[in-house]
Amino acid sequence: MRLDPIAAPSLRRQIGLPALALLATIAVAMMLALIAGANPLATLGLIAKGAVGSKFAALETLNRATPLIFTGLAVAVAFRAKLWNIGAEAQLYAGAIVAVLLGTGVLGAPLVLPVSALAAMLAGALVLLGPVMLKTRLGVDEVVTTLLLNFVMLLFVSYLLEGPMKDPMGMGWPKSAALVKEARLPRIVDGLRLHWGFALALIAAVAVWVIQTRSTLGFEMRAVGQNREAARFAGMPVNVVLVKTALLSGGLAALAGWSEVAGLKGHLSSDLSPGFGYTGIIVAMLALLHPLGVVLSALFVAAIFVGSDSMSRAAGVPTYIADMLLATALLFMVLALMLTRYRVVWK
Amino acid sequence: MTDPRDVVMRLDRITKRFGALTANDAISLTLRRGEVVALLGENGAGKTTLMNILFGHYVADDGRVEVFGQPLSPGNPRAALAAGVGMVHQHFTLADNLTVLDNIRLGTESLLSRGASRAAARARVDRLSRDFGLAVHPDARVGSLTVGERQRVEILKALYRDARILILDEPTAVLTPQEAEALFATLRRAIAQGLSILFISHKLHEVMAIADRCVVLRHGKVVGEVTTAETSGAALAAMMVGGEIALPEARPATAGKVLMRLDGVTTPDKGAAPGLKRVTLDLRAGEIVGLAGVSGNGQAALADLISGLILPGSGSVTMDGPLARWSPREAIRQGIARIPEDRHKTGTIADFTLTENAVLEGYWQPGFSKAGLMDWRAAEGFAQGIIAAYDVRCPGPGARIRLLSGGNMQKLILGRVLEPGPKIILANQPVRGLDVGAIAYVQSRLIAARDGGAAVLLISEDLDEIMGLADVIHVMSEGRLSPGFPRGSKTAAELGLWMAGQGFDHAA
Amino acid sequence: MSDLFDILLSVSFWAAAIRIASPLIFATMGELICERAGVLNLGIEGIMVIGAFAGWMAVYLGAPLWLGVTAAMAAGMLFGLLHATLTVPFGLSQHVVGLGVTMLATSTSYFAYRLALPEVTSPPKITPFAPMDLPVLSDIPFFGPVLFQQTALTWAALICAGLVGFVLFRTPLGLAVRAAGENPAAVEAQGLSVTGLRMGAVIVGSGLMAVGGSFLTLSAFSSFFFEMVNGRGWICIALVVFGAWRPGKAVLGALLFAAFDALQIRLQQTPLGAHLPYQAFLMAPYLLSILALILMSRRAEVPAALMVPYRKGER
Amino acid sequence: QETIKIAGIYTVPVEQQWVSRIHIAAEAAKAAGGVDYTYTENVANTDYPRVMREYCESGVNLIVGEIFGAEAEAREVCAEYPDVKFLLGSSFMPDEAVPNLAVFDNYIQDASYLSGIIAGAMTQTGSIGMVGGFPIPEVNRLMNAFMAGARETRPDAKFQVSFIGSWFDPPKAKETAFAMIDGGADLLYAERFGVSDAAKEKGALAIGNVIDTQADYPDTVVASALWHFEPTLNAALEAIRAGSFKADNYGVYSFMKAGGCSLAPLGTFEGKVPEAAMKLVAEKEAAIKDGSFTVAIDDTEPKSS
Ligand SMILES: Nc1ncnc2c1ncn2[C@@H]1O[C@H](COP(=O)(O)OP(=O)(O)OP(=O)(O)O)[C@@H](O)[C@H]1O
Ligand SMILES: Nc1ncnc2c1ncn2[C@@H]1O[C@H](COP(=O)(O)OP(=O)(O)OP(=O)(O)O)[C@@H](O)[C@H]1O
Ligand SMILES: [Mg+2]
Ligand SMILES: [Mg+2]
User: Fold this and answer.
1) Cβ atoms of residues C234 and A146 within 8 Å
2) Domain C2-116+125-297 has what CATH class?
3) Beta bridge pairs of residue B316
4) Same domain, yes or no: B82 and B183
5) What is the ipTM of this complex?
6) What is the reported pTM?
């Protein structure tokens, strides 16, 4: 088997293959429903209904997409520069911690949101800076250091929540005090959970897109990612670029945690993120590291998850089917996206 | 003609297309026992593609390959190896982290077997090394070897498998003249043992020296086939490009003031590569300084120093006064044009477009960006200008540079560094791997820059190139620099002695 | 201080370290094989889950223990096949496929468990591997109980590590696998199939990861629990780097990590434990891993083609 | 009478001890008739409010579950769906402003205390090991009551306390228990799965918690403090049927008085526990039931002694 690059993929290919991937996912869903003794024909409708079937459902999907856009952007920025940041999860929590530190009464009304957002970004950046320094100075593999820091950070959060940051009013449960009202991101639609964090995520995506395509920094980041030696020879400050990349990437991941706390939860707990940092990697790669694509792929991931989770309840299938379908959809989709650009040749 | 039974390999109407491009167009070719055939052609003529088909890396769209009378199954390197074909690729195929012996043994034994003893394998490698004059240490890690040693490993790999046909794709492009000589000695022994050789090179004197027959490709087609004895280098060159090549004629220089001075500069060694040892050197306006020497004798350190990659450990570098800061960007700011030794690794970014590569080192300058935002229109205009002025053959400024042939890539780099009107030009192996036409073009550009008042430092292992172009010649050996010899004051043999390190004892 | 020495000199501490290390050794060897061939397998966490599940389920349904191990291995190889197909011939991102496989294998295990046992309110048990009390050997002071009262699966882990080392460094197959991770073009040029080697390595490696997972349900414990793998797979990825891609060093790393784990459990009971938050102890193994990586960073040799997909005929 | 549709939303799988008690009670109510029951397990706290809303939208009448990790948001949902009743595990008090939310918790300190009395009598070395998941109030409360009970019969008892930082890692819990046995413990308080296994392998004893596992460890598990969710659920169902469901604290339905907890039968250990201790247990049990004695509710994190 060989793969031949296609110079100019046809529109049919570009739309048809992803559509096929979705169809295949639906087929898997039906098969699983059948195995679980549910009505396979109902699955498609139930998934769609659960993901976008009502205002409530659609907004929940957007809600779930919000942190994924941030972590997806964080990963896209880093991976573009071949900085393998697997630690968005830890950076996310760093942002969440800052949201609580500054949002529980330390700062007042007009200042608290912008200041805590910036401080959160800085905290996330610092978390990533460590591994990046180790990489640039000592050549320590960042895949492993960022991965391990996720566990350290989670334990640190757990320590904070059982120690210094424990909510005195929390009846002993390990969680932080609640944010004051001024530190909360307002909701976009009254009565529904969607908050301005989603809008901020969209703005961030556009900003990252501008940085990557229009700015000198974006040019430098791509160059360093593609060929470090050539970038250095061309006079680019490679380590500075890597550090800037880390700051941007860690900062974006931190915003995910910050917006979850400020927009949704109102407090920090050690299960704030069900793996948003890891899913961000999938989101970013699905988008081929394109910042605007990240928005689409985050929405896709969120819709599949929320839709299948809802379907599992409506159809009476074990809830784990949601993750199965999400994983299936992802794998089919990356394959389909690759096949839009390559043709399989059997020799 | 000889007995047809002597034909060891026959390519029959091989055609290979990459998209719209036909890289090989119905190429037929035969190789006989004990014969050396040279395959010639411009960059991108389709030579490597043809060899890759023969060896099974690519599958031909049409045509067939016969080895020792048997058809070779397509797309299957294993079959080619089994049939007795060995190939030394243009870009070596060695695993750096493995030892020489492991690289050679790789794939020679059944994967499910326990494997023959290392000792036996080593003995066999030792014997082959001796028989063919291919000295390498079997337990050395390939990553620590010089280019020449790696090539010996590649040849040993083929011989270890009892190759009867040896394909060499530009084997001398990266070799020092001494290493090239040694390679030819090896090849002669191989021929004597009955091997047949298919040989690709852009260096016509080598071709004249070793080949029995030459096959010339242009645009994927065979345009000529001659017996070496009945042709000349000039005739071959003309056949390749389809016309006469005007070789650059260097007029005497009129040297101006010193633009850069190195005074007793010493730099640290880098692994096996020596640093500079108290080097003193003047680069003058309107003069080409040639740096001769066997590669790995400190040229890299000198190039890195002038490129801004390293700082002098001791001694001083002055350009209109002592250097305050030193970095690649500072070097660019000071008007130094840098043509790197390796255009693939350091000179360009393969997946970037021509436009992006054109502004790779100047993107921060006011013309290309403002307030941190790129002006892509200006950048593309710049690239367009280079493409037009330097005759870069490409689909357009938006094409990825990896699609370009080496020569055209080099022209883009040339344009990138020469367009801003540099004061000093560092040209490190500027014509390596290029075809004769491209070489003539690059060299004429360098001469034109000199005539425009630039100081040029030309680093090359090709003594002919140095002697032809340089106004002043220095020789480097183990990090030391010889005095400057004016054009024509030393013969090649005399320079060779310096290269071997002989004059330095008196001079030092 | 004396607490620390007491712990370090105790038989049970070292026995615990070896026990804790056993699943890590299997899975680390699996990951090491994959990475040596050039494929980063982030599916490890999920493959350990499916191994824990499949091995346990087989035994629960009546299979003998070793058949359970085999079932785990087969399940792991199946997901390895999926990973390999997507990352090797199709050359998809190893990050995405790895995380996707982890998600798929994990959810598949849970889904299947729930379908098979919908009504349980207390996790069913099997009879796991028992420690092997070897006559004479077990009576050797100190080493006897540390080494010879482990279960057969622990022994299998140690043997497996030796075997992996032998195959990788002493056989033509191992040479080919390592070369595939260093320079696939070199492998191709010597007439071997990069695709075949890499796929084989990923499949076999995934099988070992799954056996590592099954250690948790067939030896360390007797029930299958959701989330019981608890990040062990990620640790193994760190252990491979820590071990500089060498089986011997990786086993050492696993033992070291396990020893720290065993130590922190015990230190929590010392006066020190009363002063420090328990999270500090749980963090220690991770922080020490990072520290160790820093200390050995200079010498580590990453397989040069790790994470680089190989597409034949493309340069 | 109309069927009451119950939906359970659990943050862990239904095998988890705590949730299993709710699940069993709900299944029992369903079997008894007049009730319909579905559930979703393993819901992340992030998703919890969404799942609540989904069930509300789908028209269930009563939602049971646990909102310890999603209090604020969950209460918002309750407020937004006033027609749906909620019976949720929570550390907080009921709120008059949200009249459709009643809270509960596993207040089984009474039974834990009694099991502690037996433990104190059964330990030879006087050293007791306790392995927990996280030091949350629901865990601390029971550990503290158990320790108080143990001190009744063994005033000099020493306790080793460890938290493994996970709810679902029996191998780790087992290793921790092994370490405690090495440290001299001959009796373990089995808050997590895995602890009794260690005790069994090393010939130590164990005291169960929330569920009865003696059948699996006949020679190991001496006694267990059981939680019964049935009184809590039945009270809620009655209130709904009577139309009197309101913001209320159902925690008391877990008290021994209400039948919400009990000491498991000694079973295989019948006759092996010292007479005096069993007498004390009986006394205290009676005192608890008639209200003359209350076991202190102490939610602070227990420390090794
Ligand atoms: N893998 C490939 N994919 C697409 N096009 C290719 C590929 N390899 C080669 N080509 C095309 O085939 C043409 C011939 O390439 P080839 O490598 O055979 O040139 P060559 O004669 O070896 O040149 P050089 O002298 O520079 O080595 C090139 O111009 C290129 O456009
Ligand atoms: N991925 C590719 N796609 C298309 N064409 C390619 C690709 N890689 C190489 N080529 C073509 O193959 C030809 C030979 O490539 P190669 O890498 O040998 O460069 P080259 O021209 O020989 O330069 P150099 O001598 O510097 O190595 C080039 O002309 C280039 O056009
Ligand atoms: Mg070529
Ligand atoms: Mg070339």
Assistant:
1) no
2) mainly alpha
3) B263
4) yes
5) 0.89
6) 0.91
Q: Tell me which residue has its CA closest to atom 26 in ligand 1.
A: B43
Would you say residue B342 lies in a domain? no
C47: CA distance to ligand 2 center in Å? 41
Query: B231 in a domain, yes or no?
Result: yes
Rounded to whole angstroms, what are the CA distances from A267 to C243, D42, D90, D105? 40, 21, 16, 22
State whether A226 and B351 contact (CB < 8 Å). Answer: yes
| Subunits in contact with chain B (3 or more CB pairs closer than 8 Å) | A, C
Are residues B259 and B189 part of one domain? no
Picking from B392, B420, B448, the residue at the C-terminal end of a domain is: B420
Query: Hey, of C115, C228, C283, which one would you mutate to test binding to chain D, going by the most D CBs within 10 A of its CB?
Result: C228
CA nearest to C52, candidates C233, C205, C221, C216: C216
Question: How many domains in chain B?
Answer: 3
Question: What is the per-residue burial (b if ≥16 Cβ within 10 Å, else e) of D4-35?
Answer: bbbbbbbbbbbbbbbbbbbbbbbbebbeeeeb
- Last-in-domain residue among B204, B221, B241: B241
Question: How many interface pairs between A and B have CB atoms less than 8 angstroms apart?
Answer: 66
- Which chains share 3+ C-beta pairs under 8 angstroms with C? A, B, D
Which of A36, A82, A97, A48 minimizes the C-alpha distance to A267? A97
Q: What is the DSSP string of A273-324?
A: -SSHHHHHHHHHHHTTT-HHHHHHHHHHHHHHHHHHHHHHHHHT--TTHHHH
B412 and B442, same domain (yes or no): no
Kindly state whether residues B315 and B262 are assigned to the same domain: yes
- Interchain pair D168, C227: CB under 8 A: yes
Do B34 and B174 have their domain in common? yes
Whether B157 sits inside 8 A of C301 (CB atoms) is no
CA distance D57 to D80: 11
C-beta atoms surrounding B380 within 10 Å: 19
CB contact under 8 A, D304 and C269: yes
B132 and B255 part of one domain: no
Residue B465 belongs to domain spanning: 246-335+423-508
**Domain chopping of chain C, boundaries:** 2-116+125-297
What 3-state DSSP class applies to A337? helix
Same domain, B210 and B231: yes
Ligand 1 atom 29, closest CA: B44
| Residue B179 located in a structural domain | yes
Nearest to B296 by CA among B473, B130, B476: B476
Write out the residues of chain C at the interface with chain B, using a CB-CB cutoff of 8 A.
170-173, 175-176, 178-179, 182-183, 185-192, 301, 303-304, 312-313, 315
Pocket of ligand 2 (CB under 6 A): B 43-44, 48, 90, 343, 402-406, 433; C 314-315
Q: Residues B112, B137: one domain? A: yes
Q: Which tokens is D81 given?
A: 């769906």
Closest CA to B292 of B506, B144, B491: B491
* Domain boundaries, given as residue ranges, for chain A: 66-289
Residue B144 within a domain: yes
- Tell me if there are at least 3 CB pairs under 8 Å linking chains A and B: yes
Ligand of minimum distance to the alpha carbon of B47: 1
For residue B446, give how far its alpha carbon lies from the nearest alpha carbon of chain C (Å).
Answer: 31
Give pLDDT tens digits along chain B (508 positions): 455 558 999 999 999 998 788 999 999 999 999 999 999 998 888 999 999 999 988 889 999 999 998 999 988 899 999 999 999 987 889 998 899 999 999 999 888 888 777 888 999 999 999 988 888 899 999 988 888 889 899 999 999 999 999 999 988 877 777 788 888 998 998 999 889 999 999 888 889 989 999 999 999 999 999 999 998 888 888 888 887 777 777 677 787 899 999 999 999 988 778 889 999 999 999 999 999 988 888 999 999 999 999 999 899 999 887 887 899 999 999 999 999 998 888 999 999 999 999 999 999 999 999 999 999 999 999 999 999 998 888 889 999 998 888 888 999 999 999 999 999 999 999 988 888 888 898 999 999 999 999 999 999 988 888 998 999 999 999 899 999 999 889 888 888 888 888 877 654 4
Is there contact between B and D if contact means ≥3 C-beta pairs under 8 Å?
A: no
Residues of A in contact with B365 (CB under 8 A): none
Distance (Å) from the alpha carbon of A208 to chain B's nearest alpha carbon: 13
